What we know:
Nucleotidyltransferase, domain 5; alpha/beta; 5 strands; rod-shaped
Amino acid sequence: MRVPHRHHLRERIDVEMTPMIDVVFLLLIYFLWTASFQVAVFNLTANVMVVRGASEQVDSDPPDEPPPEQIVIKIRAGDWTINGQVHSSFASLRQKVADYAKLGLSVPVFLDTEGDVPLGDVIDVYDMCRLEGLKTPHFATTSDAF
Length: 146
């Protein structure tokens, strides 16, 4: 009597690939649907140092002044204006912004610059607002800028 070979005894097993491909596509669609494609915003720390000289005077708020609905900082080549008050030094501007930040207001902050202001001055004011606790200063522009 003859003994059959082992390879003839095994049946061939076929794996169906169509359901597996369907599952992979469903997972791909699920992950694309649930993923958020927003750009992550990182806080870049900037060290801003302000040297206060003996000749600089710091403006102070009158205690009975009502809180503003918005804070507008106009940046010009020689001075800064915050809500209509002119400041000739960066230290006095910083003190005023610190006073507004101490009030804990959640009002919008707008930076309005003139065309001849150096970019470094604008960045200094922006960084100063963030360091003092005013969140997300916005840049004001005119409609004809675009």
